[in-house]
Specification:
The complex is a heterodimer of chains A (about 325) and B (about 375). Chain A has two domains: about 220 residues, Rossmann fold; about 70 residues, Alpha-Beta Plaits (2-Layer Sandwich), CATH 3.30.70.100. Chain A has eleven helices and 14 strands. In chain A, strands 6-7-8-3-9-10 form a six-stranded mixed beta sheet, with helices on both faces. In chain A, helix 3 packs across helix 4, helix 3 runs parallel beside helix 5 and helix 4 runs antiparallel to helix 5. With about 375 residues, chain B is mainly alpha-helical. Chain B has two domains: about 220 residues, no CATH class; about 110 residues, abc type-2 transporter like domain (abc type-2 transporter like fold). Helix content of chain B is about 65%, strand content about 5%. The chains are: A alpha/beta (about 325), B mainly alpha (about 375).
């Protein structure tokens, strides 16, 4: 990968707020035109990282280069080359749809003769044609998000930062929004998106998992599912579920056990031998097993496994 | 600095002012309301003060004296009573500001050529009013007394000699000593404080409160463009409101305007710029609309009211307070307004006002630009 293809390059990025380290030595890079997902629970440091990349927060140490510009030294050049959607909806609610679009076209230096065409394009893209005169504050949540995206791409930025763009939006609008993200990516825009929805993470080309400020895994969703798990996953349907999960957490040969719906996901080092041992073990604890089969892990499994692994290490230390 | 970004920013701000009924109300109504309020409501002239009289003689002479009180615009004899307790009651209740008692032997003693005293009881709960009242009353009595003396001299066939010394008074600049003439121009300072500091103190704080600041500073718009974009509409509004005040002052309250429009424009613009930058600075620092508006109120509106010389003469304030007024832009502005309106002082002679105002404008502008950064923390 040559330098021109690197849209975002992060090296040992750190952000401290007093004693609290929100972002702890994160390094990664994204490729042009990919959808790069930033996955982690609330408070993991996702928003802080994205804000540093947009030049809104100054990194405590480390380096971040966005579109070829250093975020700490050339924040204005960075801003001209990115679009940003903050986590909280932050367009002007008292302005009309068209007024918000015109405002941001102006703020992004979109030349006058191009602006009308770009605004028309954004309205089309965001499916807001005919709603130009609506006061923004009265729009439903999904529409607001699409308008915010429209405002953020008026200047055709090569990189788009979206901070939990679909939080609080109904599933249909969410799906529609992701179609837009794919459309942008197909046009060569690098999309850097944070989320805590696992199913959204599946839509990303590559993912970074982040937990308490640290990068815990990096790769395509498939890679993460295949490589990040240190063992094999078994799905166990049994009764009673509560007793089973408690017993299993203390059982030998079990790396992790968690409830998923009305079944258990149990991580074992070896699927074949593990299954036999567990069946016997659960039987001896008067748990009735109705089904036990190896399954492919979901991203959620990966994430749970990785974060509890860190937790265990921390406890051991 | 890019013209397009500045224009976008200013355009958005104008839309927000127009669409917010409170801002619009302040912008359109406040100057008119304040000018009328101060023009009519606040009168420092003491006129038509209610007077009760207890005329114990009720002679031609005593009535002649009372007529002089009555014909004078400062006093209104509202009632004649025939005992002391009624006078006391009138003063206690505030129905009378002054009570006059004429002795039962008034005309007799006058005829005899002796000295007569007329008693005046004055409500001095407001010492300033009381002093002025006593002065007026003495003047009325003195005038009557002079006339009587003159009559005597003439009756004896003597030549009337003019007194050797006298003061010939001419009141300049405010010939009729109308307080509206010096109060109404000062209203400009109050109006500008509201527009300049109070309204602008909300602008940055509002963006932080509503979360719009984060989106705004993620764009390439510069800190200076944000500031100028936000302040330009308020500058236009402030100057417009100043114009409304001036028109009302001149055409409604007949305040003389003897200076030049240029001097008025320059001093108003400097004062407004100083206030806009101060309001902006407060807004940046407070990050919260409520706190910002209260700070702005205390820092600009109250001083414009109390310490600028608008209502109360600075020369009569305690030494320490006089020193404090020197750091208030409003003081220099009010002083320049009075000079421009009433004295017609040319712009070249207003350096004592314009130079401090220019210093405030530049210093506060620098402060405002240095304080705002396009960062979240």
């Amino acid at each position: 990968m040559n330098a021109a293809d690197r849209s975002v390059l992060i090296e040992n990025l750190v952000k401290r707020f007093g004693d609290f380290t929100a972002v702890d030595h994160i390094s990664l890079e994204t490729r042009k035109g990919e959808i790069f997902g930033f996955l982690g629970p609330n408070g993991a440091g996702k928003s802080t990282t994205i804000r540093m990349l947009c030049g809104l927060l100054r990194p405590s140490s480390g380096r971040a280069v966005v579109a070829g510009f250093d975020v700490a030294r050339e924040p204005e050049s960075v801003r001209q080359n990115i679009g940003y959607m903050s986590q909280k909806f932050s367009l002007y609610n008292d302005l009309k749809v068209i007024e918000n679009l015109r405002l941001f076209a102006g703020l992004y230096n979109v030349p006058r003769h191009v602006a009308a065409e770009r605004i028309a394009w954004a309205l089309e893209m965001a499916d807001l044609k005919g709603q130009e005169a609506m006061v923004t504050g009265t729009l439903p949540g999904g529409w607001k998000q699409r308008l915010a995206l429209g405002c953020a791409v008026l200047h055709r930025p090569p990189i788009l930062f979206l901070d939990e763009p679909t939080s609080g939006v109904d599933p249909i609008s969410r799906r529609q929004f992701w179609d837009l993200i794919h459309q942008m990516s197909a046009e060569g825009v690098t999309v850097f998106v944070t989320t805590h929805y696992m199913e959204e993470a599946e839509y990303c080309n590559r993912l970074a998992m982040i937990d308490r400020g640290k990068l815990v895994a990096l790769g395509t969703p498939t890679e993460l599912k295949q490589k990040s798990m240190k063992g094999h996953l078994l799905l166990i349907e049994c009764d009673p579920l509560g007793t089973a999960v408690e017993t299993l957490q203390n059982a030998p040969e079990v790396l992790d056990a968690a409830v998923f719906g009305n079944a258990l996901h149990v991580l074992v080092p070896n699927a074949a031998t593990g299954a036999e041992q567990l069946r016997a073990y659960l039987g001896s604890h008067s748990v009735q097993v109705s089904k036990m089969e190896p399954i492919r892990p979901s991203l959620e499994d990966v994430f749970v496994a990785l974060t509890s692994e860190r937790e265990n290490k921390k406890e051991a230390a | 600095m890019r013209w397009g970004r500045l224009k976008a920013m200013a355009g958005k701000e104008i839309i927000q002012i127009i669409r917010d009924p409170r801002s619009l109300g302040i912008v359109l109504l406040m100057p008119v309301v304040l000018v009328l309020l101060f023009g009519y409501g606040v009168s420092l002239d003491l006129k038509h003060l209610p007077v009760y009289v207890y005329d114990r003689e009720a002679s031609q002479q005593s009535q002649a004296l009372l007529k002089r009180f009555q014909s004078n615009q400062y006093f209104d004899i509202v009632r004649a009573v025939n005992n002391y307790p009624d006078l006391v009651k009138a003063l206690d209740s505030g129905k009378a500001k002054m009570a006059l008692v004429i002795p039962y032997d008034f005309s007799e003693r006058l005829r005899a050529g002796g000295a007569v005293s007329v008693q005046a009881l004055v409500d001095a709960s407001d010492d300033n009013t009381a002093n002025v009242l006593i002065g007026y009353a003495q003047a009325v009595v003195q005038g009557y007394s002079n006339d009587i003396q003159l009559e005597w001299i003439q009756r004896r066939g003597q030549q009337v000699q003019p007194p050797p010394l006298s003061v010939e008074t001419r009141t300049w600049y405010n010939e009729n000593l109308e307080s509206s003439a010096f109060i109404v121009p000062g209203v400009l300072a109050v109006v500008m404080s509201v527009i300049g500091a109070f309204l602008t103190s909300l602008t940055i704080a509002r963006e932080w409160e509503r979360g719009t600041m984060e989106q705004l500073i993620s764009t390439p718009v510069s800190a200076l463009e944000i500031m100028l974009g936000k302040l330009t509409p308020y500058f236009i509004v402030g100057m417009f409101d100043a114009g409304v005040c001036v028109v009302l002052a001149i055409f409604w309250f007949q305040v003389p305007f003897r200076g030049t429009v240029l001097a008025l424009l320059v001093s108003s613009a400097l004062f407004l710029i100083a206030l806009l930058c101060l309001g902006y600075f407060i807004s940046v620092v407070a990050k919260n609309q409520l706190a910002a508006s209260q700070i702005a109120l205390v820092a600009t509106f109250l001083p414009a009211f109390l310490l600028s010389g608008f209502l109360f003469a600075i020369e009569q304030m305690p030494q320490f307070v006089q020193l404090v007024t020197r750091i208030l832009p409003a003081r220099y502005y009010v002083s320049s307004l009075k000079m421009i309106f009433l004295k017609g002082t040319p712009i070249g002679m207003l350096y004592g006002q314009l130079v401090p105002l220019a210093i405030f404008a530049v210093a506060l502008a620098l402060l405002a630009t240095r304080t705002f950064h396009k960062r979240l923390v």
